[in-house]
Amino acid sequence: MKRSLLARAAVAATAVAGLVLAGCGDTDAPGGEQADISVLAMDASQMQTLKKLTKRHFTEETGITVDYTLLPENEARERMNREFSTQAGAYDVASVSAYEVPIYADNGWLAPLDSYVKADEDFDQSDVFPNLVSSLTGEDGKLYAEPFYGEGSFLMYRKDLFRKEGLTMPPNPTWEQVADLAAQVDDADGASGICLRGLPGWGQNLAPLNTVVNTFGGTWYDTDWNARLTSPEVKKAVGFYVDLLRSHGQPGADRMGVLEILDRFVEGKCAMMYDATSLASSIEADGSAVKGKVGYVPAPHDRTEKAGWLWTWAWGIQQASENKDAAWEFISWASSKEYQELVGQEVGWTAAPAGNRKSLYSNPAYQQAADAWYRQEYTAATDSADPKNPGVGPRPYTGIGFLGIPEFAVLGTAVSEQIAAAIAGQQSVDTALEKSQDLAQAAAAKYRGE
Question: What pTM was estimated for this model as a whole?
Answer without folding.
Answer: 0.87
